[in-house]
Design brief:
By secondary structure, this protein is α+β, with helices and mostly antiparallel strands. It is built from 8 helices and 8 strands. The protein has a single domain, classed as Peptide Methionine Sulfoxide Reductase, Chain A (2-Layer Sandwich), CATH 3.30.1060.10. It is 36% helix and 19% strand. Strands 7-6-1-3-2-8 form a 6-stranded mixed beta sheet, covered by helices on one side. Strands 4-5 form a two-stranded antiparallel ribbon. Helix 5 links the parallel strand 6 and strand 7.
């Protein structure tokens, strides 16, 4: 967590303008939304951003007790929220099932209230559904994964009805694009990629 706090302090001092694109979608586009919690929201935006059919990703907070929480409140663990990313997507181009697949392979679903070096309920993993159909697909996806997972530990990721989603502060949005060096340093220092490879194996095209 210390790596993130240092990076956040630096980001707050930046004065360079960066146009936020999160949440913007073409007029009239048929879109749906999905919300996933996978630990650090900085790290959950890139896997979805590269998918054809994803219109936008927004880092934010969900699953808590207080209204309009800020990063300092959430990161202290006092609000009940977890860091999450809300994905706006075109269901004619990408399915919810595909988003679920991407989600699972970018988290460690075997630990409670922790992701990699970040510890606390604010880093718990979860799927937050917006309809009965999303709930059904999410539960089916988890059940299938229990049967086919390449690791022995049980899956503890929660599946919960989505409550209010609060976008995070501007400096958190597209952090991996605004601060690529610091993002890569944090990701490596936190052991995220090493643990993902241990759980899921090498990604397609990646050296084993």
């Amino acid at each position: 967590m210390i790596f993130r706090l240092l990076a956040c302090l630096f980001a707050l001092s930046l004065t360079t303008a960066f146009a936020q694109t999160a949440g913007v979608k073409p007029a009239g586009a048929p879109t749906s939304r999905a919300t996933f919690a996978g630990g650090c929201f900085w790290c959950m935006e890139p896997p979805f951003d590269q998918i054809d059919g994803v219109v936008s990703t927004t880092s934010g907070y969900i699953g808590g007790r207080t209204k309009n929480p800020g990063y300092q409140e959430v990161s202290s663990g006092g609000t009940g929220h977890t860091e999450a990313v809300q994905v706006v997507f075109d269901p004619n181009k990408v399915t919810y099932a595909k988003l679920l697949e991407v989600f699972w392979r970018n988290i460690d679903p075997t630990v409670k209230d922790q992701q990699f070096c970040d510890i606390g309920s604010q880093y718990r993993t979860g799927i937050f559904y917006y309809s009965d159909e999303q709930k059904r697909e999410a539960e089916a996806s988890r059940a299938q994964l229990e049967k086919t997972k390449p690791f022995k530990a049980a899956i503890v990721t929660e599946i919960t009805a989505a409550g209010e989603f609060y976008p995070a502060e501007e400096y958190h949005q597209d952090y991996y694009l605004k601060n690529p060096i610091r993002y890569k340093f944090y990701r490596a220092s936190c052991g995220r990629d090493a643990r993902l490879k241990q759980l899921w194996g090498a990604a397609p095209g990646e050296a084993k």
